[in-house]
Design brief:
The complex is a heterodimer. By secondary structure, chain A is an alpha/beta fold. Chain A contains eleven helices and eight strands. Helices cover 38% and strands 15% of the residues of chain A. By secondary structure, chain B is of the alpha/beta class. Chain B has one domain: Alpha-Beta Barrel (TIM Barrel). The chains are: A alpha/beta, B alpha/beta.
């Protein structure tokens, strides 16, 4: 048995107690139960906060999905609960003429902290991550050291948002911090390995966990390959429940010190880097 | 410890065809990982029987004999008329071996039909003895990005109505299936859901409210998926402790106890 077989966080989670360290969900959304994709129970902010409280999640970074003209709904929620939600702004490259206006209007709120979920997939904005319409977004983020969450995966979407292409965006904009959503590979080990290699070779690229933990032993594998400082906790809640990703980190065969970094410390350091232009 | 006595409805042991690099597949490793999550009872099937041939079912029996708390699962082809020409002998051999459930493995070749007439006469024997049937890779239990290979919701409905004493267990109920699985379970009292992959937001609470706690089964999905997600989803669900105990293991114990009744 290793020292990390059943850590304090492991035991507390088995017992059903809230995780006690700082927990920041880097990848959550603002949805309604009537989502066209699937029924989403208890998706209202109060319902989300109740679930967060039970599990010990301190802050969730939330974004809205859709056409890119409903960020005001997100802003209203994060301003109402600034200690529990951080706002991320949805941009739609299919409307390039209003992107800067959307960003500037949203970032007037101090509760807005990042950009995302950038969604190049064929089933959302269907626009490649290397396309020119995203360029103003990257420049906006670069000027403010913003964290930018970019969806990656599944394998069938590689032509839109493969991890190595996200790495090219990050390399050209070293002051923005890029989170590879889903670590690139929730159905593909090849995409995961590409995401790991991208994060390993770019200082400003981080791996966001949600949906990847479905593979047994994945968190330990990722830490072994990319290190303990390049992985952040995320859930995709309330599209998915928060519990699965809590389990993947809490029960990993890792020290609690590393789990604390994944759960919140690394993401907190990225949020602390955000600067407001004079 | 949560105080819940988990009984895992969905475990496979032995060498699988397409492992991921960190996957551990030996019975000892899989069961140790379950124990690390305070899971000490499990239905287990052998990977060879799933990936190669139902003739490999017997491989699970010495493993079960060596590991208290486990019960054997046999696999049955999706279409079994030819494979089991003597269904009476086949079901008796399963009962003699202590089989606690059968697992229907979808065929990539003939998955276009899962109508009751195509499944095979052994299903009438399943009905006679109330044998729990684990339905793998149904349309309600696959990730939306994955292709369908097995039972559609319509197939499950028709099979449940044709064999009303068979507990039909949808394995790895998917988070996106709520809008279909709720009316299906309301219509068919013998349809159950195994929850190893069920990640709908507050999904346990929703299913308990909509269909009741009696037909929800804890499962891990080992060795492909880790046990943790379903453990945490059960432990933290905003439902009563009695409802948690049913989901964690008592529902499965009740189904196994009813075999042959």
């Amino acid at each position: 048995m290793t020292d990390y077989e059943r850590t304090t966080i492991h035991e507390a989670t088995l017992a059903g107690r809230p995780v006690e360290c700082l927990v920041i969900d880097a990848h959550a959304h603002l949805q309604t139960p009537s989502s066209t994709a699937a029924h989403v129970p208890h998706a209202d902010p109060e319902g989300m906060i109740a679930a967060m409280d039970a599990l010990g999640i301190d802050v969730a970074c939330i974004s809205i999905l859709g056409a890119g003209d409903q960020n005001e709904l997100m802003v209203e929620v994060v301003e109402r609960h600034p200690d529990r939600f951080a706002g991320f702004v949805l941009v739609n490259p299919r409307y390039p003429n209003d992107i800067i206006e959307v960003l500037e209007r949203s970032f007037r709120s101090p509760a807005v902290k990042g950009i995302g979920e950038v969604h190049p997939t064929t089933y959302w904005h269907d626009y490649p991550v290397l396309g020119p319409n995203y360029q103003p977004v990257w420049e906006f983020a670069e000027a403010r050291n913003l964290p930018v969450l970019i969806h990656s995966g599944p394998m069938s979407e590689a032509q839109r948002c493969r991890p190595s292409d996200i790495g090219k965006v990050a390399a050209a904009h070293p002051n923005m911090n890029v989170l590879i959503g889903h670590s690139g590979g929730y159905d593909s080990w090849e995409m995961l390995e590409e995401a790991i290699e991208t994060a390993r070779t770019h200082d400003n690229v981080f791996l966001e966990l949600c949906a990847m933990g479905r593979y047994t032993g994945i968190v330990e594998h990722m830490v072994g390959r990319v290190g303990e400082d390049k992985i952040v906790f995320g859930t995709d809640a309330p599209f998915h429940d928060w519990t699965a990703e809590i389990a993947h980190v809490a029960f990993a065969r890792l020290s609690d010190r590393i789990k604390e970094k994944i759960f919140g410390l690394t993401m907190q350091s990225l949020l602390d880097q955000v600067k407001v232009p004079v | 410890m949560s105080g819940l006595n988990f009984f895992d409805a969905n475990v496979v042991v032995g060498r699988v065809v397409r492992p991921t690099p960190p996957m551990r597949v030996t019975p000892e490793d899989v069961l140790a990982d379950l124990a690390r999550h305070d899971i000490h009872e499990a239905l287990i099937a052998h990977a060879h029987a799933i990936d190669r041939s139902h003739e490999d079912n017997a491989g699970i029996l010495p493993i079960v004999a060596a590991h208290p708390g486990t019960r054997p699962v046999f696999t049955v082809p999706q279409h079994s008329s030819i494979d089991f020409p003597d269904p009476d002998a086949a079901i008796q051999s399963m009962l003699d071996a202590g089989v606690a459930a059968v697992r229907v493995t979808p065929s990539r070749y003939n998955g276009y039909t899962c109508d009751p007439w195509a499944l095979g006469p052994i299903w009438r024997r399943f009905d006679d003895v109330r044998m729990p049937v684990l339905l793998v890779n149904t349309d309600l239990g696959r990730y939306p990005d994955q292709p369908a290979l097995g039972f559609s919701a319509k197939n499950i409905y028709e099979t449940a109505k044709t064999f009303p004493r068979v507990p039909l267990i949808i394995v790895r109920l998917n988070f996106s299936a709520l809008r279909v699985v709720v009316p299906l379970m309301r219509e068919c009292a013998n349809v159950y859901a195994e929850l190893s992959f069920f990640t709908a937001h507050r999904g346990y609470e929703t299913l308990v409210r909509e269909v009741g706690p009696d037909r929800l089964l804890f499962g891990s999905g080992m060795p492909w998926g880790p046990p943790g997600p379903a453990v945490v989803a059960t432990t933290y669900a905003a439902i009563s402790e009695d409802e948690k105990r049913l989901i964690a293991g008592d529902n499965l114990r009740r189904l196994i106890g009813a075999i042959g009744s």
